[in-house]
Write a structure and sequence with these properties.
- The complex is a heterodimer of chains A (about 525) and B (about 325).
- Chain A has about 525 residues and is mainly α.
- Helix content of chain A is about 40%, strand content about 5%.
- Chain B has about 325 residues and is of the alpha/beta class.
- Chain B is built from ten helices and twelve strands.
- Chain B has helices spanning about 10-30, 75-85, 120-130, 150-155, 155-165, 195-200, 220, 235-245, 285-295, 305-310, and strands at about 65-70, 95-100, 135-140, 165-170, 175-180, 190-195, 200-205, 205-210, 215, 250-260, 275-285, 325-330.
- In chain B, the strands form two sheets. In chain B, strands 1, 2, 3, 4, 7, 8, 9, 10, 11 and 12 form a ten-stranded mixed β-sheet that branches. In chain B, strands 5-6 form a two-stranded antiparallel ribbon.
- In chain B, helix 2 (about 75-85) packs across helix 3, helix 3 runs parallel beside helix 5 (about 155-165) and helix 8 crosses helix 10 (about 305-310).
- The chains are: A mainly alpha (about 525), B alpha/beta (about 325).
- At the A-B interface, helix 8, helix 9 and helix 21 of A face helix 1, helix 4, helix 8 and helix 10 of B.
Chain lengths: ~525, ~325
């Protein structure tokens, strides 16, 4: 095949894979029956597989597909980055194109390439210590989280706002109804969501794109820990780029290379750990002196480069990881759970923080969008882990979307019956704000909403009549039955009191051993 | 690859401006329509969409005012009560756009738990509307637990309605509007689903069940499903339900009392709380239908605030002795 065909094939693959990502993102949801492929990109991600199993001390069979990615990388090199990675594709498309032949002096020094290996080693070292904080830098988690917690809800908000405006004109209803049914519902599912961390999540993503102006695919070259892992494997790959003599030293290939690994000072050779097999260089070479060749039968690992981490680098990184882990150990969450830290259903049954890969799949599928990626509510070490904010969205009694979608089993694969028997939190009524208790005004919304067959919120006959009540009915006052409440938060969500609800779900009693002290 | 310029920025903005101007023109056309006069009397001049006003029927003579059927098959009972009222063609004319509003409050349980309307009853009504010549029959509700799609599915109503030739509509948040309630005592306006007001025929199909504050959830209470900001209704529940009933007037109310929920309503979930009463009640008068349904729980209309208030406001009658009731054993 000609170089141009390979290039086209790669671009087509990128489009298809990103399309698949968006398709699964919008279509593999609870409302239209979950597709078993919803977590495909996590099943293929070897970094997630290794850290989740290390940190969670658990064999997670669903992540075994990642072996396939390792195998492909050992054969073809970092094709994941150049051909498949959805975030990589977005970063490639948003790069300003460099067509001129220059030696790129503005780029960071190659030493910066160490950074991704540092991040990789730190992520792995922390995982050994039972911590997955840094996995929030995995490219798949970044993209899901950004899409689920910022981009998609914002698009949805914009679309619905426009719709709301247009629906003022009844003449347009027939057209709008058709558009709504055919286009908007399949994409946005009649959900209206709000997210506490939309700005930070989006700004982080924007930052990754902005770095392209310093160097093309800055993230992939210097930072991506998954890229680091696949790059390290690619040192041993069977397919590698080769330069043949007579090379004219024209510099066209190095000007094109999106990862800047073609070194003009070294005979335009490249590092297979950095090369993403995009084949742009093959196309750019009008002599036909560049090609990708099988390394058999004279296979040997790629040569070392100045930026490959040394043993000392590894030791320093491990020391840094241990420092980080000890600092995380003295965060307040080690002594007390924050009062409103409600984890997804079933999370109390597992070592949730250790298993959670911060990917945002549960956030994506939650039909009420009550699951939110946290900032530092549960400590810095649990950045971007999900928690339920019942005032923004409750846990639907018969929904198991997050249970089905969790790729790492941090939310265990429990049945609905088991879910109903595993409380997430405990509701508590604030009698200083509750309408019947504080204002003698009748209201029973929390009792009405309680989904339990034997309601956990019960009504007690109060003395006298409530304001505005008719007939001989007396004022009813709600109580929570502690033994029955499962903490789903539907009462908090629907409570008509302004601002904070008069009934709120609080964290369950801690079952972790507290730090010793007086 | 070179990108050929299909349209210049200037042209694009020009097109955008023209489209905007077009939209603005449409908007002006709409605004020039005469605004409905609402203020000068207690009588509603809103498009209540009723071909016959339920309140203006003299119940004591002539046609059956309220029909009750008892028997084994919910569909058959439904057919018989509608027949007793004069058949569906009395309510639905050829080419009419019909909305049926059952109770699908949550996706927690199937209909056997008596928290949602019996699908056979809804499907039978869909079939009758279509054979009476309805152009389109839509079925909708706005659940407070779970998504509309999941509640429609779980209740069994989605499958039954689709098989009967009706359409399930997920209520679109953009189609609610703040609507004046001319007869309202406590609330003078609320956010109401406009399609329900615009439809030619509205059929209300509540299930009779227990409710913590309202006492019972029946026809009038079921209309809360057409509103937004429902949690605010509870502050003065009975009067506000009556006020809403004065605005959203169903042409026909069919109370599904085949199974009734006697405790832990409105959500239910315990089969021990369900009583098999095998009764279907229908009337063009929502208040009378509710008043009759109370008796199945051993109560009277006087026990349920919103029925009493609705009757006092003249929306219908809660005096069962003054109307012609036809009781059928099927």
């Amino acid at each position: 095949m000609k170089a141009a065909t390979w290039q086209r094939l790669r671009q087509l693959t990128q489009v298809l894979v990103l399309g698949l990502f968006i398709f699964l993102f919008t279509q593999s949801v609870y409302l239209v029956q979950s597709s078993p492929l919803g977590d495909l990109f996590y099943r293929l991600d070897p970094l997630v597989a290794v850290t989740a199993m290390l940190a969670g001390r658990l064999i997670i069979p669903t992540l075994a597909l990642a072996i396939g990615t390792v195998f492909v990388t050992l054969v073809f090199g970092r094709v994941w980055c150049g051909w498949f990675c959805p975030l990589g594709t977005i970063l490639e498309w948003t790069s300003p194109h460099k067509k001129k032949i220059t030696i790129k002096v503005s780029e960071p020094s190659p030493t910066w390439r160490k950074m991704k290996f540092f991040l990789l080693m730190a992520t792995l070292a922390l995982a050994v210590l039972g911590n997955q904080t840094l996995i929030f830098l995995d490219p798949n988690t970044i993209l899901t989280r950004t899409m689920a917690g910022a981009i998609w809800p914002a698009l949805r908000y914009g679309t619905f706002s426009l719709e709301n405006f247009l629906f003022q004109f009844k003449l347009l209803w027939p057209i709008l109804d058709a558009i709504h049914a055919v286009l908007i519902v399949p994409l946005f599912h009649n959900i209206q969501s709000v997210f506490i961390a939309a700005f930070p999540i989006f700004l982080f993503f924007l930052g990754l794109i902005a770095l392209n102006w310093s160097a093309e695919r800055f993230w992939c070259r210097y930072l991506c820990p998954l890229g680091g892992l696949l790059g390290w494997l690619s040192r041993y790959s069977l397919l590698r780029r080769e330069v043949h003599q007579p090379c004219k030293q024209c510099g066209l290939c190095s000007a094109q290379c999106p990862t800047g690994t073609i070194d003009p000072r070294n005979g335009y050779c490249s590092d297979s750990a950095e090369c993403i097999v995009c084949t742009d260089c093959v196309k750019s070479c009008n002599q036909g002196d560049v090609s990708f060749r099988w390394q058999l039968p004279h296979w040997k690992p790629a040569e070392k480069h100045s930026y490959d981490p040394s043993r000392r680098d590894a030791l320093v990184t491990i020391a840094a990881a241990i420092t980080g882990a000890t600092l995380a150990g003295i965060e307040p969450i080690a002594r007390r759970s924050p009062e409103h830290l409600i984890r997804p259903p079933g999370a109390t049954l597992t070592d949730f923080e250790s298993l959670c890969i911060r990917c945002g799949e549960c956030v994506r599928v939650c039909p009420t969008q009550g699951l939110q990626p946290s900032l530092v509510e549960s400590g810095w070490e649990n950045l971007m882990t999900p928690h339920l904010m019942a005032r923004l969205g409750y846990c639907v009694y018969n929904c198991s979307a997050c249970i089905q979608s969790c790729p790492s089993s941090a939310i265990p694969k429990i049945t609905l019956e088991e879910k109903h028997a595993a409380p997430m939190g405990l509701a508590s009524i604030n009698r200083d704000r509750c309408l019947p208790w504080a204002y003698n005004t009748s209201c029973i919304v929390c009792e009405e909403m309680c989904p339990l067959p034997d309601k956990a919120v019960v009504l007690e006959q109060g003395e006298g009549q409530g304001l505005g009540q008719v007939g001989n009915a007396s004022l009813l006052k709600p109580h929570v039955i502690r033994e029955k409440c499962i903490g789903c938060g539907v009462c908090e969500f629907h409570c008509p009191v302004g601002g904070d609800a008069a009934i709120q779900v609080y964290s369950l009693p801690d079952n972790k051993p507290p730090l010793s002290g007086i | 690859m070179t990108i050929r310029k299909l349209i210049s920025r200037r042209e694009f903005i020009c097109w955008l401006g023209m489209a905007g101007a077009g939209a603005a023109l449409i908007a002006c056309a709409k605004n020039d329509l005469p605004t409905p006069v609402l203020s000068n009397s207690t009588q509603t001049s809103l498009p209540v969409a009723s071909t016959l006003s339920p309140t203006q029927t003299d119940g004591s003579v002539g046609k059956t005012y309220l029909a009750v059927a008892r028997g084994e098959s919910p569909a058959e009972l439904t057919r018989r009560v509608v027949e007793a009222l004069g058949g569906m063609q009395r309510f639905v004319n050829t080419g009419n756009d019909v909305i049926i509003k059952p109770n699908m409050c949550t996706d927690n349980h199937t209909f056997e738990f008596a928290a949602t309307t019996n699908p056979e009853v809804v499907a039978e009504l869909v079939r009758q509307c279509l054979s009476a010549g309805a152009r389109r029959v839509r079925v909708m509700d706005a659940p407070f637990g779970g998504s509309p799609e999941s509640a429609y599915r779980k209740s069994g109503i989605a499958d039954a309605v689709t098989a009967a030739g009706g359409q399930m509509e997920v209520m679109n948040p953009a189609k609610y509007a703040e609507t004046p309630i001319p007869q309202g005592v406590d609330i003078k306006k609320w956010w109401v689903y406009q399609e329900v007001l615009n439809a030619d025929v509205l059929i209300n199909v509540p299930i009779a069940k227990h409710h913590g504050e309202a006492g019972l959830t029946l026809g009038c209470k079921n209309l809360m499903g057409t509103l937004q900001r429902r949690n605010l209704i509870h502050e003065n529940l009975h009067q506000r339900i009556a006020d809403i009933t004065s605005l959203v007037r169903p042409d026909l109310t069919v109370v599904d009392a085949y199974r009734i929920l006697t405790r832990n309503g409105p959500t239910g979930g315990n089969l021990n709380d369900v009583k098999l009463t095998k009764t279907i009640i229908a009337s063009q008068d929502i208040v009378a239908a509710d008043a009759y349904a109370c008796t199945l729980f051993g109560k009277t209309a006087a026990d349920i605030g919103y029925i009493k208030l609705a009757s006092r406001m003249g929306i219908g009658t809660d005096d069962l002795s003054s109307i012609k009731i036809e009781e059928l054993a099927v």
